[in-house]
Amino acid sequence: MKHKLLPLSETMHYILLALREPHHGYAVMQEIEEMSNGSVILAAGTLYGAIENLNKHGWIEAVGSSGRRKIYKITTEGSAVLKLEQERLLHILSLYEGSE
Amino acid sequence: MKKIKWFFNIEKEEQWLNEQLQKGFRCTGISGFGIYTFDKTEKQYVMRLDYQDYLPKDKLQDYKGIYEDFGWHYIKGSWLSGIRYWQKEEGNQNEIFSDRQSKGKYYKRLMGYSFLMGMLCLALSYMIYKDLSGFYHDGLWNMEGALFWYALLFETPFVLLKLSPVMLAILFGSSFYSGYRNYSVLIEK
């Protein structure tokens, strides 16, 4: 059976993409706001829960801290998940193109 | 200003708190037994209630840290009830959940809490009522006239006290149901 976080929700997807570079929580939200051209603005509870969840599954990890903020980064396993999602989405996109 | 109010439904509590804030107040403290303290303010504040089970010290720090970065101020939280009270000045983002999945999980946490509390109340009721002899107040029904009414008045609070776990169980049950309804609406959308 598929992993329970797959296919990735928009929130999880953006967080994993943002954490290809190390960031602390609030910076992840800012990064995502920019990446999505302002269309995805995460709220505090959603971000906290998603980071906890991704961390629990070993897709991201804490790599240090700046002051009291923890800095997170994607793990090898997390990168593999992104790769799978990319293939899935590319396939769906190819179906769009085929119909034109 | 202090107000005393009891809630068994976290959403009703959040709604009531925000009604107070709309009248130009800001919440400065919440103590056990439902005592809420408010201060007059010129600014507009919003409150949001989250539910989290017991968080160990380092997790609580992470949890608070992220909310505080978003401008939320932690008013109160206790591991016993699990309700976390957050307040911030009204702005662009006044919600603590921005997607359906996280809001759904929040309702699930609430349901788990209500279920557990309801079960505890039922267990307590069982322990009280399995000794039924104490419940019927035999002597009372043999009394007549004024004496009966005095005795009835005297006994009533004790009967209510004995019934309170059942009433609490019903209240927690209804809050479980309201959590479930919110959750299922969210999933169907």
UniProtKB/TrEMBL annotation, chain A:
Superkingdom classification of source: Bacteria
Protein name: DNA-binding PadR family transcriptional regulator
DNA-binding among keywords: yes
Keyword terms of this UniProt record: DNA-binding
GO molecular function terms attached to this record: DNA binding
Family matches, as InterPro entries: Metal_resp_DNA-bind_regulator (IPR052509), Tscrpt_reg_PadR_N (IPR005149), WH-like_DNA-bd_sf (IPR036388), WH_DNA-bd_sf (IPR036390)
Domain Transcription regulator PadR N-terminal: 18-83
UniProtKB/TrEMBL annotation, chain B:
Keywords: Membrane, Transmembrane, Transmembrane helix
Stretches that traverse the bilayer: 110-129, 149-172
Domain of life assignment: Bacteria
InterPro entries for this protein: DUF2812
Statement: the UniProt record of this protein carries the keyword Transmembrane: yes
Annotated protein name in UniProt: DUF2812 domain-containing protein
